[in-house]
Every structure is written in structure tokens, then in C-alpha cells.
Design brief:
Elements (H helix, E strand, L loop, with lengths): L3 E12 L2 E12 L3 E5 L6 H8 L7 E6 L2 E2 L5 H7 L3 E4 L13 H12 L5 H14 L16 H13 L5 E5 L7 H16 L3 E5 L3 H7 L2 E6 L2 E7 H6 L4 H8 L7 H4 L36 H4 L5 E4 L2 E3 L4 H5 L7
Parallel strand pairs: 3-8, 3-9, 6-7, 7-8
Antiparallel strand pairs: 1-2, 1-4, 4-5, 9-10, 10-12, 11-12
Helix pairs in contact: 3-4, 3-5, 4-5
């Protein structure tokens, strides 16, 4: 996975006087599934919308196949959207209630493949419905005739109808039954094996572990840890990542990995920190059992502490090697 498809650098998004995304940088390669995890309110969905320029970032760059989506002309951005698709978290809000599901799924084909006749377009729509586990005979129904989980699968079908190079999934399995979750995850695995890149936003860490190559951990709009999937679940470094894994019941290896031999108890995820903690120092310091005086005055940089494993913590070497903590 050396072919970089998406390159995000120093991305910042402001809502009024508050920075909700701060200095986010990462790469995503073709055929890679990169998961983004964090508490509600940490900025995951905002980051996804900023990447797609559905909202305008205050600074930074988002290069997709070498084109900066944040500065390119509208016509260029429109052409790039064929390769960039998103499935939103709220399935009902993302579907037009006045359009049948067949019309909704087929609309991208009308826009980007105008030469396709109605019969061929209908065949593509029916095939895509079947791939996401719905009956091809449902094309004439409207969104209100479906359950929330079914509407989510319709949204996935609409996003995948153009075979995009990058699919952004914003909590797409949270409203699905476990059996349907498995079906959608298997579909995403098939798409990944076919070369599609996926940015997968989720609270479901079991699905994240099954699906991902790498994982990004976000706290209050900043990336605090980036690591290969197995390394993150087996040896989490940032105290916030440890708290996330410790909060998941029966997560394999999570209990042992998330409880390093260090003084104090690991902070429970709880509520996000107050905004004033973002002004200086580490925003996680008031919830961190390992906080030092330097954490109040100096914001820790994101540093590589092992091959491919990055963490933003002043005590990252100690949390990576728990026995190095002072008694």
C-alpha cells in the first residue's frame, strides 16, 4: 500500500472562535482501510466533511490523486467527486423522501454517466441493491417504507454505484442488526480487496479491529495516536486510547493492554474536556492519570515511537514500556 490516494496536511476547521479540528495530518493509500475512532464530539464527522469540502476548512490541504480539493476550481472539484463518496450517519436525513430508492441510487449514474441508457442504469441499480442485501424489486419504493437499517444500506448502495476510489463511512453500521453488520463489513472487505480505499468512522471497536489496516484516534479535534491495527489494540500508547479500549467489555487483549503498571487508575472516557484546556498544553491532562506539570504548559507533538506507530503524549515512551514508570 505505497500508492498514496489521499494526503491530508495540517487541516484546521473553525466553528466561530473555536477550532474543532486542529493540525490533522495523515495519508491514506489505495486499497487501505483506515479507521477513525474517538468519543462523540471529538470531531470525526467534521473531519470527514472537511475532507470532502462539504464545509470549508480554515487552513491546510487535502490532496486527492494529486489535486488539492480545498483550492481547486469548482469544475475540478465536481469531477473529483466521482472518486470520493460518503455514507452519512443518519440514513433518513441523507435520502430525498420524494425520490424512489431506485431514483436515488441511479441519480449519480445520470450525473457522471449520462450516456448510459435507462435499461442499463436500472440493471446497475438492481445489482447494487442485491449486493447490499436488499431485494432488487424494491426500486419503486420510497425511503419512508424502509427501516433505518434498510435506509442505511440504500445509502451505501448509492455511494458505491460509481465504484469510487475512496469511500468515507460515517458510523454506517451503528443502526444495523448484527447479521447485517457482518454482511456490510464483508462487502467493504471485498471492495477493499478490489482496490477501494475506505475511511471508516466508527464507535464499534470490534468492527474496527476486524476491518482496518491502520487506526487513527482523535480527541478534541486532534489526532493523539496513529498505529497499525494490531499494534494499537495490543499495545495502546496514549492514555486516551487505553481508556477507550478499557471501556469496551470483553475486548480481546484490551484489558491487559489498557492497564499498564503505572501509578493511579486509568481515567474513564466520561465527558470531553472543557474547551479552555485546548488553549495550551495537553487537552487530555485533566483526565489522565499520568499527567505531569509539563502537560499543562506544552502540547505534546505527534511523534513516531515505533515503526508506523505515532502518539502525542509527553510520556509515550513510558506508556509504551510500562515497567519504565517510576515507582
Amino acid at each position: 500500500m505505497n500508492n498514496i490516494l489521499l494526503r491530508v496536511r495540517d487541516l484546521r476547521v473553525d466553528f466561530g472562535a473555536h477550532a474543532v479540528i486542529r493540525g490533522v495530518s495523515f495519508d491514506l493509500c489505495s486499497g487501505e482501510t483506515l479507521s477513525l475512532v474517538g468519543e462523540s464530539g471529538s470531531g470525526k464527522s467534521t473531519l470527514a466533511r472537511a475532507i470532502l469540502r462539504l464545509l470549508q476548512p480554515a487552513q491546510g490541504s487535502v490532496e486527492f490523486l494529486g489535486v488539492d480539493l480545498l483550492t481547486c476550481p469548482p469544475a475540478v472539484l465536481r469531477a473529483q467527486r466521482r472518486g470520493l463518496q460518503i455514507v452519512f450517519q443518519d440514513p433518513l436525513a441523507s435520502l430525498d423522501p420524494r425520490m424512489t430508492v431506485g431514483e436515488s441510487i441511479g441519480e449519480p449514474l445520470k450525473i457522471f454517466e449520462p450516456g448510459l441508457n435507462a435499461g442499463a442504469r436500472q440493471l446497475r441499480v438492481r445489482d447494487m441493491l442485491e449486493r447490499v442485501g436488499l431485494s432488487p424489486g424494491m426500486t419503486g419504493r420510497y425511503p419512508h417504507e424502509f427501516s433505518g437499517g434498510q435506509c442505511q444500506r440504500i445509502g451505501i448502495a448509492r455511494a458505491m454505484i460509481l465504484s469510487p476510489k475512496l469511500l468515507i463511512c460515517d458510523e454506517i453500521v451503528s443502526s444495523l442488526d448484527v447479521s447485517i453488520q457482518g454482511q456490510i463489513v464483508n462487502l467493504l472487505l471485498d471492495l477493499r480487496d478490489a482496490g477501494m480505499a475506505v475511511l471508516f468512522i466508527s464507535h464499534n471497536l470490534a468492527v474496527v479491529r476486524h476491518l482496518s489496516h491502520r487506526v487513527l484516534v482523535m480527541y478534541l479535534g486532534k489526532l493523539v495516536e496513529i498505529a497499525p491495527c494490531d499494534a494499537l489494540f495490543e499495545s495502546p500508547v496514549h492514555p486516551y486510547t487505553q481508556a477507550l479500549l478499557a471501556a469496551v467489555p470483553h475486548m480481546p487483549h484490551a484489558t491487559a493492554a489498557a492497564a499498564p503498571a503505572a501509578p493511579g487508575e486509568l481515567a474513564a472516557p466520561g465527558e470531553l474536556a472543557a474547551p479552555d484546556l485546548m488553549a495550551s498544553g495537553c487537552a487530555f491532562r485533566d483526565r489522565c492519570p499520568y499527567a505531569l506539570p509539563v502537560c499543562e504548559t506544552s502540547e505534546p507533538p505527534l511523534l513516531e515511537i515505533a515503526p508506523g506507530h505515532w502518539a502525542a503524549c509527553h510520556r509515550s515512551q513510558e506508556t509504551l514500556n510500562p515497567l519504565s514508570f517510576p515507582a
